[in-house]
Amino acid sequence: MHQRTRRWICRALFVGLCGVPTLGVLGWSLWLRMPAATYQCQWRLAQQLGLGVQLDQVHYPRPGVMVCSGLKLRDPELGRMLAKIDRVEATTVGPSLRLRAGTVALSVAALDDCWQLVDRRLRVTSATDLQVAVDRVTWRDDQVPRQLTDVKVTMQASLQGSEAVVDGHVAGDQPVRIRWVRNRQHDHPAMAWEIETGRAPLPCSLVATMFPAFAPFGVGTHFRGSLRATRVAGEYRGEVVGELAGLDMEALLSERFPYRLTGHGRIAIHRARFRGGRLEEATISLLVGPGEIERELIVRGSQLLAMRPAVRVESLNVVESYDQLGLAVYLGPQGIVLRGICDGSTPGTLLKSRFGPLVMLDEPQHPAQPVASLLTLLARQGEKTVPVAASTQRLAAILPLPSSTVRQVQHARPVTRER
Predict the structure, then answer these.
(1) What is the Cα–Cα distance from 262 to 303, expressed in whole angstroms?
(2) Cβ(343)–Cβ(324) under 8 Å?
(3) Distances (CA, A) of 256 to 163, 249, 378
(4) Average of pLDDT values for 218-240?
(5) pLDDT band at 409 (very low <50, low <70, confident <90, very high)
(6) Which three-class secondary structure state does DSSP give residue 262?
(7) Is residue 300 classed exposed, middle or buried when 0-12, 13-18 and 19+ CB atoms within 10 A define those classes?
């Protein structure tokens, strides 16, 4: 072969195998530094996460790995800020997306939005499988800092159903699991939720973002236990077993209860079943104290729920101090059954002071009372209570009332307070 021909062949090989790849890499590197590359990454993440995405900077340390800085996630409909992440590493493995982040800061309003977005994503059969690992998730709840550590999120979708699982730790190393499952194997797709806290205390404000019934318990109350619920054809049903600790009776009842009752304590939920937004059956126990109780409440309780004052009511102060309130309650279609369970007192003691019992209940079993009596006790004085008072209509709508009473409640007109 002629020397000139060999020279041209060598030059062509150099250009094709060295020059062109080098120029291609340089051009690709320059393109990645341009705003268009960042916008394309935002679009890809938005499509895979189903969220509004904003990025400050993107770089690729190795093939298939993308590192995003200054990541902000927003609700795609309302534009509300959901989370801020300083740095997140995204890896694509086949059809799955894996995200790794250090600290994720959530806004208070973001919690409820996050669960709604999870629900929407589970409805999509073609959603990308997602795996997320976060060292720490933080948020502020009424100026109280909260956090979950070592959080792992997995989301999988198929034609038969979808599943999302959040595993994390609170109060040190106590594990918590939140799980959603959407089953499409029936005529009506079914949605199921589970919360398992084990021994870990989970703020009721966090639980309330999924189950609004926990909202009245306030910021300082924590739930420990299990909660399961399903929704089929628009009807909810489920079961709760656990404990509510850090309960503040004054904060819980001051706006809903006509009498003064203060004290801190806990509620043990031995079992509570609900269906269609109504409590079917519940067995709970309440231990509160020390605190204060209004004398009129003791008087009304003796009249409506057959409680027995252990002292002369006239001798009590208008607002009486007490040492402990201990009450076990069964609620069901047959009515309400009460039992006094104060520590270290005469069996049947419902309320005691440091001098002895104040209120007693019959032992071994107090006679069942109609739930309507409880609603009358909780109503404000002077209100008409037929079928129920206006102030207790919301409570009546969730208690296990007889069907005839339920129909009256549903059609009752608002009543005004008598003067």
Answers:
(1) 22
(2) yes
(3) 38, 11, 8
(4) 86
(5) very low
(6) coil
(7) buried
Residue 390, number of CB atoms within 10 A of its CB: 17
- Closest by CA position to 106, among listed 75, 140, 65: 140
CA gap 272, 12 in Å, rounded: 80
- Taking CA atoms, 346 is separated from 20, 342, 359, in Å, by 93, 8, 11
Tell me whether strands 264-275 and 235-248 are parallel, antiparallel or unpaired.
antiparallel
Which is it for the CA torsion 43, 48, 53, 54, positive or negative?
A: negative
Question: What's the pLDDT tens digit per position in 305-321?
Answer: 888 888 888 888 999 99
H-helix segments, 15-90: 20-32, 35-49
What would the pLDDT profile of 64-85 be if each residue is shown by its tens digit? Answer: 787 888 888 887 777 778 888 8
Q: Which two tokens stand for residue 382?
A: 């002077």
Residues found in the chain: 419
Strand partners, 164: 155, 180
Q: Nearest Cα to 366, choosing from 346, 349, 380, 379?
A: 349
pLDDT at 50 over 80: no
Looking up tokens 């800061």 gives: 105
273 and 239 in contact (C-beta within 8 Å)?
Answer: yes
Query: Residue with structure tokens 């809903």?
Result: 256
**Residue pair 277/309 in contact by the 8 Å Cβ criterion:** no
